[in-house]
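G., the chain you wanted modeled:
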Amino acid sequence: MQPKAQNSFLKRIHNKYRLVILNENTYEEIVAFKLNRFSVYVALSIMFVVLVGLTIALIAFTPLKYYIPGYGKAGSNTEYESLKLKADSIEKTLILKQQYFDNIEKILKGNETPSDTAVLKQKKQVERSNRK
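Predicted structure as tokens:
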């Protein structure tokens, strides 16, 4: 049974077919192709390989590769870390300055009395004299 089934498959794959494209209004034959299943399989396989190759080339040789997760330059991670540290320090500075302005605003509105800076100056002078 196996040789007959295999033989019928080989016969079907090499049967000739004709593909005709006609003008619907005049029934004029525009293009005619003589095909068999094997040539159609080969043509589709070649088109698939070419499309896959073009897609890989497009991704490999253009900046599209940077949109792939996990792909990037070797030094980009260290650059991201340094930028993160800079952003954190800027954020801390901004918070401190905002606290400073909030304290000045409270003092100007009279909600809080300023601390005596004379006491602080005296402490600094005492510390300096103790060092000498």
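The mean pLDDT is 84.

Shout if anything looks off.
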